[in-house]
Specification:
With about 575 residues, the chain is of the alpha+beta class. Helices cover about 45% and strands about 10% of the residues.
């Protein structure tokens, strides 16, 4: 029972859109942090005893807040929370620009209240959420006045400011950004924002950038560099690489190091090692050192661009590769997205109570804490982890293991199952499109019968893409991720290092015949034997053949067996070539 109290529900709308409107990983992470802090502003309008979701003031706030207030006070308290969110946002914008700047339609705060007359707590919950959904459908649309101005390059729904904020670096002044875009871009780098808005709490460690996609992709390679930095040849190559990068970038941009990745450690005071861990993520790729692209990025006012330094940097990166004596860094990284299945239905189930919702909220916080630790341990960085959803960037090598372990961190009882997507993407691809594809892949996983599935896919730099999806229940105790890893050199069973990519071409050529064999129960044995023959022919093992066949032999995915098998083979062969 709610004890004769008002049930208040407050939601921040358009969150996924605001976060995905990003050109860099820093934009993405900053937007997530901005939303979390605005949610905390709303949460702070309620006492610890009043909060239901989240259950405690110190918890990471979700985008939706539920509280129980004294009867008759819910609407007033909800209005105050919505006003506080808008006031805080306007304060941040004013601090950055030195004047008020309107951002139409952001932040969007919706609220609803169900009083004691609605019934017990669960009835209030239902009524409040129905009313909240209705409010969203009847929203007012604030349209910006373009009047000849240019649209924002991050979010074209807003107009770009004619003048950028004062005091920003020269290389950023030409950006066509709206007020919201500038706040997002400068969130963790401009002292006017991070000192007043962020302070020194546990969520902020200083004005550093979020690791780029190239930095995430190159973590295993740079880890190997750090381990051998005492080697004279490695040390010399890194020193020359750093010198060339500084000359190309300019001192101001060179000093803007990225936030550290937990897996990359160095001795305090070792500047060369620190730069390798926090600044070299892009520069270790020899192919990066191209005059035309670097000139476009770094030849800005006040900085002399020296083409000779580009040649020196390319040679240093090549020499470093030779000194290590191993494969170069892969340009591919992975986006991991996960979401609990049917969370709304689960929270509205019969028998739910205030205390039960608070218990679930606390459990989600615990899950988020464990998942963040897993991501860091496996050399990745989490954009956000709330227990019910997760978005993280990881090196290609550890992404599937991270997906399995993050799912294993979710208890078998007490919360719903989780669907997961792992998308491998080229570090130079559009980040916004990559994140949108990962979200779409997650929806594909959720479209599987009974959900609780893993979708794995890739998109190359040219745009070629394939994906495969299978329930977590297929593949034994280790899950479907272990089936894909069987095809990765050095990480699978017998024959994993010899499986030829030509297997895909043979499966494509034989697809029609295999489909006919798989359709009839009388010829299924022949179908299995033919798949096994092709796999063995191309250097695989019986275990590899069984893994592929298992992809098609499940009734949860609404695809024919051969199509599912072929897509799995495409993804597996991609992983074979790019995970290192």
């Amino acid at each position: 029972m709610s004890g004769g109290k008002d049930c208040v529900v407050i939601g921040l709308s358009g969150v996924q859109r605001f976060i995905s409107e990003a050109r860099t990983t820093a934009d993405l992470a900053n937007a997530s942090d901005i939303v979390a802090r605005l949610a905390r502003v709303a949460m702070d309008e309620f006492t610890a005893d009043e909060l239901v979701i989240p259950s405690q003031l110190g918890e990471s706030p979700p985008n939706r807040i539920v509280a129980l207030t004294p009867a008759g006070t819910g609407a007033q308290r909800a209005r105050a929370a919505a006003r506080a969110v808008h006031d805080r946002w306007e304060e941040w914008v004013r601090q950055l620009f030195g004047r008020p700047v309107e951002v139409p339609g952001f932040p969007e705060v919706f609220w609803s209240v169900a009083g004691p007359e609605a019934g017990d707590y669960l009835q209030q919950w239902e009524e409040a959420h129905v009313a909240l959904a209705a409010r969203k459908r009847l929203r007012g649309f604030d349209a910006p006045e373009y009047s000849g101005g240019r649209p924002c390059s991050l979010a074209p729904r807003w107009i770009a400011e004619a003048e950028p904020p004062k005091g920003i670096p020269a290389h950023q002044r030409g950006a066509q950004l709206s007020a919201a875009g500038w706040v997002k871009r400068l969130w963790h780098t401009d002292t006017r924002l991070f000192r007043s808005a962020l302070g020194t709490d546990e969520f902020f460690s200083g004005p550093t950038g979020f690791p780029s996609t190239s930095s995430v992709a190159s973590v295993p390679y740079r880890k190997a560099v750090l381990e051998r930095l005492a080697d004279p040849q490695v040390n010399d190559a890194v020193r020359r690489l750093r010198s060339a990068a500084r000359a190309v970038m300019g001192s101001e941009r060179f000093r803007a190091l990225e936030a550290p990745i937990a897996a990359l450690r160095w001795e305090t005071g070792d500047r060369l090692a620190m730069w390798t861990a926090r600044g070299a993520g892009w520069w270790v790729y020899p192919e990066v050192w191209q005059v035309r692209s670097l000139r476009r990025e770094y030849a800005v006012a006040g900085h002399m661009f020296d083409e000779k330094q580009v040649d020196g940097g390319r040679k240093a990166a090549t020499d470093l590769l030779k000194a290590l004596g191993e494969e170069g860094p892969t340009p591919y990284y992975a986006v991991l997205a996960s979401d609990l299945d049917n969370m709304g239905t689960f929270l509205s189930a019969e028998g739910m109570s205030v205390e039960r919702h608070r218990q679930i909220s606390r459990r989600l916080v615990d899950i988020a804490r464990v998942q963040r630790a897993i991501i860091e341990e496996l050399s990745g960085v989490a954009v956000y982890a709330g227990g019910d959803d997760l978005l993280a960037f990881l090196p290609a090598r550890t992404a599937l293991e991270a997906a399995e372990r993050c799912r294993a961190a979710i208890p078998a009882e007490g919360v719903p199952t989780a669907s997961t997507a792992v998308l491998f993407a080229h570090a130079y691809s559009s980040l916004r499109h990559t994140v949108e594809r990962a979200r779409s892949l997650l929806e594909t996983a959720k479209s599987v019968r009974n959900k609780n599935a893993l979708a794995t896919g890739f998109v190359t730099r040219s745009g070629t893409s394939f994906h495969t999806v299978i329930p977590w229940s297929v593949g034994g105790a280790e899950g479907p991720g272990s089936l894909l890893r069987m095809f990765v050199p050095g990480r699978g069973g017998e024959g994993a290092t010899r499986l030829s990519p030509r297997l895909v071409a043979d499966l494509e050529r034989e697809q029609r015949a295999l489909t006919e064999l798989a359709r009839r129960s009388s010829t299924v044995k022949a179908y299995r034997a033919e798949v096994t023959r092709l796999v063995l022919r191309h250097g695989g093992s019986q275990a590899d053949a069984d893994a592929l066949i298992a992809w098609g032999d499940n009734h949860y995915v609404d695809r024919d067996a051969v199509s599912a098998l072929l897509d799995a083979a495409r993804v597996a062969v991609f992983l074979r070539g790019e995970i290192r």
